Amino acid sequence: MPNHQDRAIIITGAAGAIGFATAEILASQGARLMLVDITGDALEARGAELRATGATIETFRADCSKEEDVIGYVDATVAKFGRIDGFFNNAGVEGAIAPIHEYPIAEYDRIMSVNLRGVFLGLHYVLKQMVAQGKGAVVNTASIGSERGLAGGGPYNAAKHGVVGLTRTAGSDLGPLGIRVNCVEPGVIETPLLNEILVQMFKGGIEEGLRTLGRVATLDRCGKPAEVGHVVSFLLSDEASFVNGSAWPVDGGALSTIRH
Predict the structure, then answer these.
(1) Residue 156 a catalytic site member
(2) Domains of the chain, with CATH numbers?
(3) 259, pLDDT greater than 80
(4) For labelling alongside 183, which of 58, 142, 170, 237 has CA 20 to 30 A away?
């Protein structure tokens, strides 16, 4: 099990399924966490749940697409914990499903603002602090959509391709300074955000959607948020000390083959 004892780690999108599952894992491994999300009530509830286990938890409400909010959560973390050892740059939105020629421009702007600009801003300001420290590790959230086309999800797909590009470039920039930057590429993971899409895509709703999309993976099922969280924990840990600039599929084998 990775050891994150007393490490200060920021998680954005912390009130969501993958963010919170990762927070639970990191808290159990001794990390001190700054949980960041735009949904204030859900964020506070998640924070209270973890504090009840004895974990050291701070929360910060932020819109990760806004520069002043990103500066705010970075400064708050340093003020509270004195440093930033790890960063799970995870906040994101799924968006509408529509072909490119029908996709609403305003929705495109919203998706790109959160899923790409927000990732860049997080990297920009967290890495400044890590450079000053001379050490740190970052994990961005990309997607299996970073490696393939995704019919109906043009802006999401484009943004997630961009996250892999930012990850590889940041790893190249910061590796010589002792800072590692990697990303995870979740496949079909059971989350509320996925469920919103399944309702749009399948007449049989969520159950039909999970059965159908689960067959994309060679394991014949959808993944669980904690299965992503354990990979994130590893990549943030010293056990991954020679892993940098890489994209890790957590997809049940979906990208490994042509199937269904």
Answers:
(1) yes
(2) 8-187+224-253 (3.40.50.720), 189-222 (no CATH)
(3) no
(4) 58
